[in-house]
Structures are given as structure tokens and as C-alpha cells.
Amino acid sequence: LTSDSHHRTLGLVKQRSKNVSSASKRVISNQIFSYLIVIDFESTCWREKNNYSQEIIEFPAVLLNTSTGDIDSEFHTFVQPQEHPILSEFCTELTGITQVQVEAGIPLQICLPRFNRWLQSLQLEMGFTFPNKQQTSSASSSAQKLCTFVTWSDWDLGVCLQYECKRKQLHKPDVLNNWIDLRSTYRMWYNRKPKGLNGALQDLGLLFDGREHSGLDDAKNTARLAAKMMRDGCVMKITRINKSYVCNYGSVNPG
């Protein structure tokens, strides 16, 4: 496979961010992590309250270079819900995701290994590792590049993916057991509670780019917010470590 074909088979689109000239932005420094992978899932949802479990229907991730503020790579796929395969009208209205898109997607049990392979390819290409416990809150050596995950709140990795994998008995990559909650980081850094992702962007003079509740657009805008916060001097640190987290890994294991 060519490089482009290989990336397409992983369900991702890879591109370099080119919407901001290098002259118009400061280079970010003094960060623990050389790269941040921003995730923002969209899931099944209903207007009325019920006891239905939510399932991921859009799985996006973007790789943020913390030195430049650029998005260097993207992963994106729609995911087929298995427990409640028919989307509600409310879900389509909110997310913009259609029944045709999820039916053309892949089940989560196929999505996760593809995502894992994307992580492996990034580690080889970019030369970073995921941190052990000693590296989650202290500066890394200049010779070692570290990467971790960022979400807006703990819901994506701490609730949505966690419980769907548990219900379906799916293996979740161990590296997804710790992350940065950008919402709580924003609240601590600026000493104010944000009114959602859009409100946080507006507070910092940024406009939301794209469609709200599109997972990929939400992930890109969360990355933009993180870059702005780092330029304001905020050092990104892991805020959540799941109990099942093990401290002896530095690379992604197959599976």
C-alpha cells in the first residue's frame, strides 16, 4: 500500500494545518507533552429520558503539535451502533449524523484496532511515547517526546468509551486510561467556569469553526482552544488516571 492508501485503510484523513501563517503565532514552549491527541465522540441520544445505553457513532481524533499549535494528523470514522442501530430524529438533528453514514461505518470492535494502528503509526512517524506515571506531571527530557489525550470533560473516555467497552467486552487500548480534561483545566487556569466549548472559545476571542456537535469539528476546535491556552502560559497536565492504568508502558500494544 502507498502511504496515502495505508492511511485510508485506517479510516483516517491525514493533513497538515495550513490556515494560520507561522508569522501570526508564537511558538509554544515549556510543555510536558510534545503532542496532544484530542478526542470528541458523538453518541446515540434521544430527546426523551430513557434507560438506553449510549453508543459511539462518530470517532474522531486529531494530533495537536504543542510546539506549533498545528494539527498534524487526523483519524475519523463513523461507527455502527449495535444495541440501538436506528438513530433517533433528535440524534440526527443534534449531531448532523445520518442513518446512511452510520450504516456505512464500522462496528466499535473494528474501529478500536484501527485507531490503535493509527496510534502506532504516529509513534513511529513522530517519535513520541505515551507516559508512565512518573512522567504524567513533570517535564520530559529534551530527548524524549511525550504524548497524551485531551477531551472536553471526562465523559468521552471516562464514561462513554469506558462503559461501552465494558458492556460489549471489548479491549480498550491501555493508553486511553489517562487524559487531560480541558474543561477543568480551563476552569483552573482562567478561574472561571466556561459556558460549554463554544463559550470557552468566545471568552478567548475565538469563533467556533464548523458545526457544533460534529465530532471532528468539536475535536478541532478543542485543539484550537488548547493551543490558545498554551500560548497564554497554561502547561497541560494529566487530570485523570483510571484505576486500571498501568505505569510500565511507553508504546501502544497491538490489538
Output the keywords.
255 residues; alpha/beta; Nucleotidyltransferase, domain 5; 9-stranded mixed sheet; 8 helices; 17% strand; globular; disordered C terminus; RNaseH_sf; magnesium
Number of H/I helices: 8
Spell the H/E element sequence: HEEEEHHEHEEHEHHHE
Shape: globular
The largest sheet is: 9 strands, mixed
User: Termini separation (Å)?
Assistant: 21 Å
Overall number of domains: 1
Q: Strand share of the residues? A: 15-25%
Helix content: 25-40%
* DSSP strand count: 9
Identify low-pLDDT runs.
Answer: 1-24, 245-255
Radius of gyration computed on alpha carbons: 18 Å
Structural class: alpha/beta
Architecture in CATH?
Answer: 2-Layer Sandwich
The CATH homology group name: Ribonuclease H-like superfamily/Ribonuclease H
Mean pLDDT: 86
- CATH fold call: Nucleotidyltransferase, domain 5
* CATH level 1 name: Alpha Beta
